[in-house]
Amino acid sequence: MLSDRKKKILCAVVDGYIDRASPISSKEIQEEYLTECSSATIRNELSALESMGYLFQPHVSAGRIPSEKAFRFYVNELAYDSNLTPAEAERIEKHFSRKIAGIEDVMTEVTRILSDITNYTAVVVKEDMSDTITAIKLLDLSNGKMLVVIVTDSRVLKDGMLDIPDDFTPHMMAQAERWLNKLFIGKHVSEFMNFNYPFALVNDEFSQFNALFKKIIDVLKKQSLMNGMDVETYGESNILQHSEYANAASARQFLAAVENKDKIAEMFTYDGGEEGSVTIKIGSPDNAPEGCSVVSTRVNLGENVSGSIGVIGPVRMNYKKVLSVLDKISEIIIDLIGRQGD
């Protein structure tokens, strides 16, 4: 548990590092953020934060740099008001003032302005969940594995592989298949994506299948998403403007990561978020590209069509600016989709 003073000092280091991309000294913290504290006190607190894994010192005589753990603390504590300038807000509004033809047009315009304002790589993922489920099949592969097959009115999804529990008999598999079909046949995939299994599986007759059903539903969600997605990116070269990617190897690694559309789609969607929720992923432990952060928000893109908008950039990201821009663009999307439905 960090004291209030440690929290203030840690956030000051993160803010300073975001602004300067260089180690932050105790003197800079004292002069710019905590004038009420002495440099000696701040140095002691910095040493304690370093021993706790929040900071590190690239050289003995240098200031401190925040670790990914520090950035995670920072975003969890972040309470922000929109820091968009009036000019930036006006620029975003003007960008969407012309006639927008459809969802694809919305996606293109969002990536352009989002990348331009934040100076990071912008991503929009559209999830078309308009398919209707017509059947669910569970196939015993006789090797301790089960294949989950979803049939919709337009496609067949059959990439869900699961381990079969040791005590799972053919009769139990048939029961499970009947129950799944009872739950999902005739529903749009969009309804299925919001399916809340803990409440649907309270029937005592099927309580023995709860753990299995949870696994199956999670697989179905992921496979349905991945087969109904459209990913658009813009501003990949923006990463070259940030010091972390000044060398060719780091730049190539980032550009290779954003070329993998399936991986990008997974990063931006399969997080259990609901419309309006914001997700911040920091570094590879959070399933973001190594040394990068992913900030996204869920949006409604029309009937049975949802998605996510956001950015990929260095961990040393201006999170306050990014969240402000996403908030503003989300408001505009709500208005655009509403007008298209009129």
Task: List the topology elements.
Blueprint lengths: L3 H17 L5 H7 L6 H13 L3 E2 L8 E2 L1 H10 L8 H10 L7 H16 L2 E8 L4 E8 L4 E8 L3 E8 L6 H15 L4 H5 L3 H4 L9 H18 L1 E6 L13 H12 L1 H9 L8 E5 L9 E9 L4 E10 L4 H23 L1
Antiparallel strand pairs: 1-2, 3-7, 3-10, 4-5, 5-6, 8-9, 9-10
Helix pairs in contact: 1-3, 2-3, 6-13
Description:
Helix content is 46%, strand content 19%. The chain is of the alpha+beta class and 342 residues long. Strand 5 (145-152) and strand 6 (156-163) form a beta hairpin. The protein is globular, with a radius of gyration of 24 Å.
Describe the structure using short key phrases.
globular; 5-stranded antiparallel β-sheet; 3-stranded antiparallel β-sheet; alpha+beta
Concise synopsis of the structure shown:
The chain is α+β, with helices and mostly antiparallel strands. The protein is built from 13 helices and 10 strands.
Unreliable segments of 5+ consecutive residues: none
User: Topology as H/E string?
Assistant: HHHEEHHHEEEEHHHHEHHEEEH
The shape, in one word, is globular
- Into which percent range does the helicity of residues fall? 40-55%
What's the Cα radius of gyration? 24 Å
Mean pLDDT: 83
* Share in β-strands: 15-25%
The side-by-side strand order for the widest beta sheet comes to: 7-3-10-9-8
**In total, how many beta strands?**
10
Number of helices: 13
| Helix/strand class | alpha+beta
Describe the sheet with the most strands. Answer: 5 strands, antiparallel
Head-to-tail CA distance between termini: 52 Å
